[in-house]
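Why do we care about 3D structure at all? Because function follows from shape, and shape follows, mostly, from sequence. That is the central idea of this module. The next example makes it concrete: a single protein chain, its amino acid sequence, and then its structure expressed as tokens.
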Amino acid sequence: MSTSDFSLTLSVDKRAADAFKAITNVRGWWSEEIEGGTEKLNDVFLYHYEDVHKAQIKLIEVVPNKKIVWLIEKNFFKFTKDTSEWTGNTISFDLSENDHETHIRFTHHGLVPAYECYDICTNAWSQYIQKSLYNLITNGKGHPNGKGKPTTPDEERLGSHK
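And the structure:
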């Protein structure tokens, strides 16, 4: 991991199996409009938020209760000059369990300060991981975005639902 890759750490008073199940429930914490599989090796899913952000993501590593790695095969941002920022990046979720506490290290490999989307993207990931995913793991209810339902202030500002 490069030191400039964006990373967050989250700790929850739940078993790694509970955290793993929540992470693979991408519709429960990131977007209600995910299409495709999000749980098994080689699953491919499509993410989109209105016409602002679209991505095709493949699960390239899945180690139950330990690790999940996504490859961003295709990406489109409406709000950046290079609309394909993220294409070829990977996102990893590394889990470790001590007693009944699980630590999750989220890393978006390739999301670096030189990216035009860096501020918006790091703010969004912080919201989705530290709030929505955390809430899904701890109380069973995340806060994913959906059609006309922004989760972050940037989605509100960039979206067409106004």
